[in-house]
Design goal:
The protein has about 140 residues and is mainly alpha-helical. It has helices at about 40-55, 60-75, 80-90, 95-105, 110-115, 125-140. It has 6 helices and no strands.
Length: about 140
Amino acid sequence: SKSSIGGESNEKLMEPGAEENAADLNFGQDFEQANCLQNSEVAILLEHNLQEQGSEWDPPEIFRKTLQYVQTFSQNTNKMVAEEVRVQLGERNLHDFEKAQLSNLVPETPEEAKTLIPSLQRFEDEDLITILSDLAGLRSYTR
């Protein structure tokens, strides 16, 4: 049976001894307590860190490359919009990983979303259309 939109649950689907598999939302113990971030959230955090360090700080190459990547692929770097994306996706019956992937990969159709994020197969297309439409509305707000 497929889920509908609206639950607040982010149940752990990993059964003891099960293999790690993102398609099944099984991430293993190392990631049990981890939070998944949108590219825009990472950009905001890194930019804030850069500002706090001051103009004299020469960030490591990995910091610069990561910042460049998330700035390039972020849908927005507006903190209010990033928070609103998280709030709106939090109102759905989505795993934290799925929320981040929807925000980062920006699928346009339910078919594309299910192909890129196989765990979304449990949703009806109509439910995904609603989610994708809400995200598109937030993206248009930032342009």
